[in-house]
Design goal:
The complex is a heterodimer of chains A (463) and B (386).
Chain A: H1 11-21, H2 27-33, H3 38-51, H4 76-103, H5 107-119, H6 124-127, H7 130-142, H8 148-156, H9 159-164, H10 178-188, H11 196-206, E1 209-212, E2 217-220, E3 230-232, E4 235-237, H12 241-250, H13 253-266, H14 273-285, H15 290-298, H16 301-304, H17 316-326, E5 330-331, H18 335-343, H19 366-384, H20 387-390, E6 401-402, H21 405-409, H22 422-432, H23 447-455
Antiparallel strand pairs in A: 1-2, 3-4, 5-6
Helix pairs in contact in A: 1-2, 3-5, 4-7, 4-17, 4-18, 8-12, 10-11, 13-14, 13-15, 14-15, 17-18, 19-23
Chain B: H1 3-10, E1 30-36, E2 46-47, H2 52-57, E3 69-70, E4 76-77, H3 85-89, E5 93-100, H4 108-117, H5 129-141, E6 148-151, E7 164-167, H6 170-176, H7 189-208, H8 224-238, E8 247-252, H9 261-285, E9 292-297, E10 318-323, E11 331-333, E12 352-353, H10 354-366, H11 370-374
Parallel strand pairs in B: 1-8, 1-9, 5-11, 5-12, 6-7, 6-8
Antiparallel strand pairs in B: 2-4, 3-4, 5-10, 9-10
Classes of the chains: A mainly alpha (463), B alpha/beta (386).
Chain lengths: 463, 386
């Protein structure tokens, strides 16, 4: 393995860093970061993401009074209407978030919110409360690069999570194990780091929480809490929910588990235990600061090693948002993207189960791959419409997209109405693909069709 | 006039005999795996209604003895499963009792991995058990259109590692395959994966292209599972004279009923039974029922005792259904786990290993060596005529 970091970022280095920590960068973004020292660039990324605020207000429904639960609706029609509203609200929320991802000057903040949404996967399908999903989303945003410990405690009493993993139905008399199991398996320790008995004891510690659906707040009901002694992960005490979470975080497996997951998100599919271990130590010593762990990973030689480039697969959200950002394609309304990513297997606020989207090669099946290719093909066909009649202005397209091709192509030495020459071809590859293309673009392919052909190359799926 | 036209004209039931020749080759057979996602509650599916412990363990969840569809003096089906009764009576449906494995893992994700890869609880394998059957000789027995089709789920499950594809709509799949170009598979693991999927798409699209099945007369339920069943039947019907698709993987659920189980479960089982009944009708119409085997499975059953939320937590052993023209049906295979003898987690103790099911399929259905498929020697289960 390459053991050194670049002293200054080349264009390819900048592209790698921005592609991994954000969505795909445009050539303009790349040139703004090239030339920085790696620690300068990483510090700037983290500082920007810590300060990030959404650019647009969230959909109006998030500020309305909490909606009554679906089952409180009197008759079938009212229930149907409430269900329709729930779907519309969820799509509006997902569309808003995708638009933020498209426009954000600090895309790492959005990537981290998405990372935690996948880690603490919670689905609106069971929660059935779009406002509740937004409240959870704010929690994830607030702690996205801060203390993982605070985030975990917050999630454990987040109403959406209490409903999703049946924490709200966990009573002393007969505990419901759902949250207790998943919090150890998926949120803190990983499989094999606890016993079935630990799950039972943890379920007792978590008993007594309920959700006040009118106020959308977690409430502790002391009479439904098991106040007895518990033995959890070798420790004995009268643990309540917070104490049980801290017992879990005391396990050496906990920081390793989170750092390994960050590794798989940002570095490569297989974490290197030798690097994970010291990063995990720093992570814990820092008071569980996610930004500290992430900084260590991004400044590790493994992140920059040539053999770890183009080894990850874009998620559907990264593919959709990344393609728009990469080509500086503007979008009227990101709601259309909600359906696009859903068909490719990633409906925001609706992960398949509590393990979240498995990712990596699981993103690519024959069904989803064809959908991914269909997306970029349609996108480019939409912007390819005869530009001659339109003059040099922005062009309307099928997705409500606009692409001003000439200023994008020109700095790379290419033109919308010409086949790129050899030098321009090299620059286009560097701007569009994380690695060499599998197929050469057929001779005679002109301008935007050239970009469309590149987006259909298998290498376009990689980052 | 071919058989399909005959059927659509007359709706006649053909005698099994005329298909005995077609079914003679293991390669012409169709296996349909139906995954009940999330862990189906076996005790409320095949109900030990006469056992006193059943009602005691489940004060509000137990089905009443007079609502279950009694199959014998001890066991009956959930009332939602009524559409399966005709198959039971025709002896085309058997119930395998107590399927599980030693040292059960109650994690959804790990447990389904164990079922999909047919691994021991302590070993981690990458390939699905179907892929191992392919390399054990099934692949050599025919030039399949594609080695498996997963419908309605992104993951290939037991088909992982085989040359298989996932799709939702066969016609759309064939049309969209034009976006893929042939390439030599090489590169890092991620790129190789993409290229392997592309090559699978090209091969499958070639075999699925053509007039296809056209419209079928069978009516399929409109829910997702019913539509997956429709796609399965269309592909089977369209494969006449082609390589064929030996394995289908369908999913239904989620059966993860930690709370308020009664209504959810009833609805899921209703959809399941409607889908399976339509699957039979469609496969009969396609002329494939005699050479088809349909198997349900799930990562685990659920806890014997209900929890306080009117649901059930993660359990272990569960019964499963096998059906098809070659099934020795109308009977139970194996032993019901004892409700009076639960394990340390208060879960049922399995009485049959799920790998016995796979070994039986490997040996009797495909004629390949079961030991390479399930990595060990397991007694076969007597549920097949073939």
């Amino acid at each position: 393995m390459n053991t050194t970091l670049p002293s200054r970022l080349s264009a390819a280095d900048a592209r790698h860093l921005l592609g991994r920590t954000g969505f795909m960068p445009s050539p303009g973004e790349v040139s703004a970061w090239a030339g920085l020292a790696p620690d300068e660039a990483v510090n700037r990324l983290l500082a920007g993401a810590r300060r990030a605020e959404p650019r647009q207000p969230a959909p109006a429904f998030t500020r309305e009074p909490i909606r009554p639960p679906l089952r409180a609706q009197g008759d079938v029609d009212a229930r149907k209407e409430a269900l329709r509203q729930l779907r519309a609200d969820t799509v509006a929320l997902a569309g808003w978030w995708l638009q933020e991802m498209r426009d954000s000057p600090t895309p790492l903040a959005e990537r981290m919110a998405l990372f935690w949404h996948n880690h603490f996967a919670t689905s609106v399908q069971k929660v059935r409360q779009a406002q509740g999903m937004y409240i959870q989303h704010q929690l994830l945003r607030r702690h996205a690069l801060g203390s993982f410990r605070e985030l975990l405690h917050g999630v454990a009493r987040d109403p959406a999570m209490l409903i999703y993993l049946d924490g709200a139905a966990n009573r002393a008399e007969s505990p419901n194990e759902n949250f207790a199991r998943e919090v150890m398996e998926l949120f803190t320790l990983g499989e094999g780091q606890y016993s079935e008995q630990d799950i039972k004891e943890a379920a007792r510690a978590f008993s007594g929480w309920a959700v006040d659906r009118e106020a959308w707040a977690a409430r502790f009901r002391p009479r439904q809490h098991d106040r007895g002694d518990k033995t959890l992960l070798g420790q004995r005490g009268r643990f309540d929910a917070d104490a049980a979470l801290d017992v879990m975080l005391d396990q050496p497996a906990a920081p390793r588990f989170i750092v390994s997951k960050l590794w798989r998100e940002f570095v490569s599919p297989v974490p290197d235990a030798k690097v994970v271990e010291p990063v995990a130590q720093r992570f814990r010593e820092s008071g569980w600061r996610t930004d500290v762990a992430l900084r260590e990973l991004l400044l590790s030689p493994a992140f920059w090693a040539p053999q770890n480039r183009a080894v990850l697969i874009k998620s559907p959200v990264e593919l959709a948002v990344g393609t728009l950002r990469q080509f500086e394609i503007e979008l009227d309304n990101a709601q259309a993207l909600v359906g696009v990513t859903a068909r490719q297997g990633q409906m925001l606020f609706s992960p398949p189960n509590v393990k979240g989207w498995p990712g990596y090669t699981d993103w690519i099946t024959s069904t989803t791959l064809l959908d991914r290719k269909r997306f970029t093909e349609r996108l480019f066909r939409a912007v390819e419409q005869p530009r001659m009649e339109m003059g040099r202005g922005m062009q309307p397209g099928g997705f409500g997209v606009r692409f001003d091709a000439e200023p994008w192509l020109k700095p790379l030495g290419a033109w919308p109405d010409r086949e790129p020459d050899e030098a321009a071809r090299g620059k286009l590859v560097e701007a569009v693909l994380a690695t060499a293309p599998v197929h050469p673009v057929p001779a005679g392919t002109v301008g935007l069709s050239y970009l469309r052909a590149m987006s259909l190359d298998p290498a376009f799926q990689l980052k | 006039m071919d058989r399909r036209q005959l059927l659509s004209l007359g709706g006649l039931a053909f005698p099994a005999l005329s298909w005995a020749q077609a079914a003679a080759s293991a390669a012409g057979r169709v296996l349909v795996l139906v995954e009940l996602k999330g862990g189906n509650d076996g005790l409320n599916t095949v109900v030990p209604y006469a056992h006193p412990a059943y009602a005691q363990l489940r004060p509000s969840l137990a089905l009443k003895a007079d609502e279950v569809l009694r199959l014998d003096g001890a066991l009956g089906l959930h009332p939602s499963l009524a559409p399966l009764i005709p198959m039971w009576e025709k002896r085309e449906l058997a119930v395998l009792l107590g399927l599980g494995y030693p040292q059960p893992n109650l994690s959804h994700f790990r447990s389904i991995e164990i079922w999909d890869t047919a691994s021991r609880a302590t070993e981690y394998l990458d390939e699905g058990w179907v892929a191992r059957a392919m390399s054990a000789g099934l692949r050599e027995s025919a030039r399949f259109t594609t080695e498996g089709v997963a419908i309605g789920s992104a993951s290939l499950g037991a088909l992982a590692g085989a040359n298989a594809v996932s799709l939702t709509n066969p016609e759309a799949f064939v049309t969209q395959a034009r976006l893929v170009r042939p390439a030599h598979v090489q590169g890092n693991a991620a790129l190789e994966h993409v290229l392997r999927v592309e090559s699978g798409v090209l091969q499958a699209a070639e075999g699925l292209r053509g007039p296809g099945a056209g419209a079928m007369n069978t009516e399929f339920p409109t829910h997702n599972f019913g539509q997956a069943v429709r796609a399965t039947c269309q592909i089977v019907a369209g494969q006449k004279g082609k390589g064929g698709v030996p394995v289908f993987h369908l999913t239904h659920g989620s059966f993860d009923t930690h709370r308020g189980q009664l209504a959810t479960h009833a609805n899921l089982l209703k959809q399941l039974a409607e889908g399976l009944a339509a699957l039979k009708a469609g496969l009969v119409e396609a002329g494939a029922w005699e050479r088809a085997l349909v198997v349900t499975y799930s990562e685990f059953g659920r806890r014997a005792r209900q929890n306080q939320s009117g649901g059930t937590d993660h359990g272990t052993a569960a019964p499963h259904f096998v059906m098809g023209g070659s099934v020795r049906g109308g009977r139970f295979v194996g032993t019901m786990p004892d409700l009076d003898r639960l394990d340390g987690n208060q879960n049922l103790v399995h009485t049959a290993d799920f790998r016995q099911l796979y070994a039986t399929i490997a040996r009797r259905w495909w004629g390949v060596n079961p030991e390479t498929v399930v990595r060990g020697t397991f007694d076969l289960l007597p549920f097949l005529e073939v």
